[in-house]
Write a structure and sequence with these properties.
The protein has 13 helices and 6 strands. By secondary structure, the protein is of the alpha+beta class. Strands 1-2-3-4-6-5 form a 6-stranded mixed sheet. Helix 2 packs antiparallel against helix 3 and helix 3 (40-57) packs antiparallel against helix 4. The longest helix has 19 residues, at 70-88.
Length: 288
């Protein structure tokens, strides 16, 4: 196997126009795979160097998006976190097969935008499979929301980073909605916000009611929630931090399902969450 210098390796990470936050140039991915097959530590060392180089080169002026002022602080928090990772994380963290590392690279490559509780990739559209996934009633609902949005792309698509959960709470999500609205105003080409997750499942009303706000607030403020399919129980995030959901699944009382949230631009920009009483979600939970 030919030896490649860190500098030459970094040059392989040039611009890439692929979809999704994790898109990387094919040459770079092939090189990492070839090196890791023979020397995993060498591949990790090169990826650590790549992350450090991208961090040193990173500027907000390099972003292709118009960033509201609040995003400067959000990015600075991520820069500090990633800088700590470069120093402190073990070798196996620095692998393209490790999704958190791939997300770190995506942040530094302006393919993933920090918004608070989650991150947004601007390379997204709505899947047409939602038209048939939930029966004819959902099909009608899907058509209506797409007509309201004005198309199936481009949308901001939200993703969780397991290292960034401090804002994953009701107050943090309200701030996130505000940030998303600010971003949409500054970037009028986007039709809205979408995401797919197990925690948008209405079944959480009974299984994990403390998480029901994740669906209730967007739905109450104009988002459509559509069934997307069953989740893989072997890899579902529903079991990552919850023993109770694992017990319910084992007993046959719960199975993780995926739901897609489509929040049209106009409805999100109404910021209807501002008009909700502070305890509105608790009141609804008590009456349900």
């Amino acid at each position: 196997m030919a030896i490649i210098s860190p500098q030459a390796y970094c040059l392989l990470a040039g611009p890439d126009k692929g979809h999704g936050y994790g898109a990387l140039p094919a040459q770079l991915v092939a090189m990492e795979n070839a090196i890791a097959t023979q020397d995993p530590v060498a591949a990790s060392t090169l990826n650590r160097h790549l992350c450090r180089a991208l961090l040193e080169q990173f500027t907000l002026t390099g972003s292709p998006w118009n960033l509201p002022e609040k995003f400067e602080l959000l990015y600075e928090q991520q820069r500090r976190r990633i800088a700590t990772n470069v120093i402190a994380k073990p070798d196996d963290y620095f692998s393209f097969a490790n999704d958190p590392f791939r997300k770190d690279l995506a942040i530094l490559r302006h393919r993933l935008i920090p918004c608070g509780a989650e991150f947004a990739t601007p390379f997204s559209g709505i899947s047409r499979t939602l038209l048939l996934a939930g029966g004819w009633r959902q099909g009608i609902k899907f058509i209506r929301v797409i007509v309201h949005c004005g198309g199936i792309k481009p949308f901001l698509e939200l993703h969780m980073h397991p290292q960034c959960i401090d804002a994953f709470n009701p107050e943090g999500w309200l701030d996130t909605y505000e940030n998303l609205a600010d971003f949409l105003i500054a970037n009028p080409s986007f039709l809205g916000v979408q995401s797919t997750s197990w925690f948008l499942d209405p079944a959480l009303e009974q299984v994990s009611p403390h998480l029901s706000y994740l669906r209730r607030t967007p739905e109450n403020c104009g988002a459509a929630i559509l069934y997307a399919g069953d989740d893989d129980p072997q890899h579902s995030g529903a079991f990552a931090t919850s023993k109770s959901r694992r017990v319910l699944y084992a007993a046959g009382h719960y199975r993780p399902r995926l739901f897609t949230r489509i929040w049209p631009r106009q409805r999100l920009l109404q910021r209807s969450w501002r008009g909700l009483p502070p305890d509105w979600d608790e009141r609804r939970a008590d009456s349900s």
